[in-house]
């Protein structure tokens, strides 16, 4: 509702305006009165009305003087001028002072309400403009951090587009000469645990808390803008900048800030983290180099020495690491699982991790790669056994956690637990699939042998073709056909040999070669072992039997 102030020394006129005005329709909730210019000015200051109606000729302070004061001190206040004198000077001053309307006495209902409606319309329009302006400001202020985050990410990821992003550079003070920019990277090691205990399982709340700690601990002159890396929820990125000192000074102060933040996060929230710092540069486009340097320092931290505590990495470790092959271990583990020996599979996994532990160092980045490789390799094994894709997690922490698997590790012992959990999950999948007769149809092998019995058939050929272990294939084949694979190859050859020996036109040497034996003597020996007689004796016996029939 609006407030209207009537300033006029004639009480009958004030009463007439009170009666004639359509206040409810005009959304006017209060009508105030003043009997002279000075009283009117006092009420302006005390009640802050939305619209003023004033006479031009009054005692104490005339309308012309009051109108000039209002123009200077209340330039946005709508004023409707009322005068009993058709005086050009009054009208001219009203125009100069941007009066909303000019009414002559005696005031009639229509002119009065038309003038009031004009004033209310102006107030409504201004209110709408203010509302839209406030909304725009709120939207801008809320989106400003997102705009800065998007800009910093484009610089860090080297996707900055000068033609489209140049206008945003002023948001980060890029117009200031002598401003240095650098990056701090923070990896939260116990993300899942601390989210559940302190942040109601909300990683965004944790990121917000980390950002607040960065902001609160930033010293004068050094500014810091932090945000979660959208490509890795464990990783917080903080872009620091400062002006008025050299690069070494800002690097030193940013390093102090990082150490303080790491300590404070553990004190306040129990967050175990590892931090790394990149060097500052005058060009904000160098933020990508600073980020890579900071990240390398984080992922170079030796997990074997971390022991579940926070740490700030100071060096870049690019040494080559010689660790045992995980691929060969997966093959052995797969074989154990296919044979139903889950305990042996777990032992193989533990032995592999003990070998790694005996190395000179094992970085956090190496641990990440190990877990990714583990998931990729066992997904392949699971597919070989017909496991449905929806039962297999993708590489990456979010997917692993969606399957109820642990991903936090702040020490090598905790990494072993994560590794064991993933291995146990896949063990259950693979053993279940291996026990199913539909997991692999050995008919494929039988069909191949039936058509290629004369070739040098090796079980390794099938193991490589179907991505299954030798032992598992032999077990499946015997379960389905009652023969081992080598036994079946021998049976097919010997069955074929008898049929070929029935043809007297074929020499034993020729039959030997047709069956894949390059040595006639070896064929004869194999035939004797299988049938208890040599090929020649078998053929002679056939001839004798035929003579008897004749």
Description:
This protein is α/β, with parallel strands linked by helices and 550 residues long. It has 22 helices and 10 strands. Strands 2-1-3-4-5 form a 5-stranded parallel sheet, sandwiched between helices. Strand 7 and strand 8 form a beta hairpin. The longest helix is centred in the first third of the chain and has 48 residues, at 109-156. Mean pLDDT is 88; it is low at 138-142.
Major sheet size, sense and barrel closure:
5 strands, parallel
Give me the count of strands.
10
Distance between the termini: 129 Å
Strand order of the largest sheet: 2-1-3-4-5
Radius of gyration: 45 Å
Shape: elongated
> Low-confidence parts lasting 5 or more residues at pLDDT below 50?
138-142
Count of individual helical segments: 22
The structure class reads: alpha/beta
Strand content: 5-15%
* Portion of residues within helices: 55-70%
> What value does the average pLDDT take?
88
Layout of helices and strands:
Layout: E1 2-7, H1 11-20, E2 28-34, H2 37-47, E3 51-55, H3 63-73, E4 79-83, H4 88-96, E5 101-104, H5 109-156, H6 162-165, E6 179-188, H7 191-198, H8 203-217, E7 222-228, E8 235-243, H9 247-269, E9 273-277, H10 287-299, E10 311-313, H11 326-338, H12 342-357, H13 364-384, H14 397-402, H15 412-434, H16 443-452, H17 459-466, H18 470-481, H19 485-501, H20 508-514, H21 520-531, H22 535-549
């Amino acid at each position: 509702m609006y407030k209207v102030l009537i300033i006029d020394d004639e009480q009958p006129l004030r009463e007439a305006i009170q009666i004639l005005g359509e206040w409810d329709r005009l959304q006017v909730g209060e009508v105030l009165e003043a009997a002279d210019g000075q009283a009117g000015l006092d009420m302006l200051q005390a009640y802050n009305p939305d619209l003023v109606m004033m006479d031009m000729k009054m005692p104490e302070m005339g309308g012309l003087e009051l109108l000039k004061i209002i123009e200077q001190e209340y330039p946005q206040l709508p004023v409707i001028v009322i005068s009993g004198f058709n005086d050009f000077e009054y009208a001219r001053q009203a125009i100069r002072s941007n009066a909303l309307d000019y009414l002559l006495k005696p005031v009639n209902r229509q002119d009065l309400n038309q003038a009031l409606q004009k004033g209310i319309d102006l107030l409504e329009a201004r209110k709408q403009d203010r509302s839209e302006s406030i909304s725009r400001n709120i939207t801008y202020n809320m989106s400003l951090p997102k705009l800065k985050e998007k800009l910093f990410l484009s610089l860090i990821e080297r996707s900055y587009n000068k033609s489209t992003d140049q206008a945003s550079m002023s948001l980060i003070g890029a117009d200031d000469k002598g401003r240095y920019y650098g990056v701090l990277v923070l990896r939260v090691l116990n993300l899942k645990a601390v989210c559940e205990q302190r942040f109601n399982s909300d990683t965004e709340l944790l990121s917000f808390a980390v950002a607040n700690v960065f902001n609160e601990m930033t010293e004068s002159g050094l500014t810091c803008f932090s945000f979660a890396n959208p490509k890795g929820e464990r990783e917080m990125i903080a872009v620091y900048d400062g002006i008025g000192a050299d690069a070494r000074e800002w690097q030193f102060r940013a390093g102090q800030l990082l150490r303080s933040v790491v300590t404070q996060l553990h004190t306040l929230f129990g967050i175990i983290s590892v931090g790394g710092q990149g060097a500052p540069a005058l060009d904000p486009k160098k933020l990508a180099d600073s980020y890579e340097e900071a990240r390398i320092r984080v992922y170079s931290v030796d997990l074997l020495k971390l022991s579940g505590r926070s740490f700030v990495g100071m060096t870049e470790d690019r040494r080559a690491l010689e660790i045992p092959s995980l691929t060969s271990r997966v093959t052995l583990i797969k074989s154990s699982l296919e044979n139903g020996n889950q305990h042996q599979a777990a032992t193989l996994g533990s032995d592999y991790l003990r070998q790694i532990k005996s190395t000179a160092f094992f970085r956090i980045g190496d641990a990440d790669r190990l877990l990714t490789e583990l998931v990729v390799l066992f997904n392949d094994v699971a597919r070989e056994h017909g496991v449905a894709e929806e039962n297999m997690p993708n590489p990456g922490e979010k997917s692993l956690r969606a399957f109820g698997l642990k991903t936090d590790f702040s020490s090598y012992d905790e990494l072993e637990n994560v590794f064991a959990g993933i291995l146990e999950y896949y063990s259950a999948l693979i053993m279940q699939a291996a026990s199913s007769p539909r997991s692999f149809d050995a008919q494929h092998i039988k069909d191949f042998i039936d058509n290629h019995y004369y070739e040098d058939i090796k079980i390794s050929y099938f193991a490589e073709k179907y991505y299954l272990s030798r032992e598992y294939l032999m077990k499946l084949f015997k379960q389905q056909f009652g023969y081992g694979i080598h036994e079946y190859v021998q049976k097919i050859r010997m069955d074929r040999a008898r049929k070929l020996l029935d043809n007297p036109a074929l020499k034993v040497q020729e039959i030997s070669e047709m069956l894949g034996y390059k040595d006639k003597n070896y064929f004869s020996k194999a035939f004797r072992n299988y049938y208890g007689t040599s090929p020649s004796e078998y053929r002679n016996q056939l001839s004798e039997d035929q003579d008897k029939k004749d």
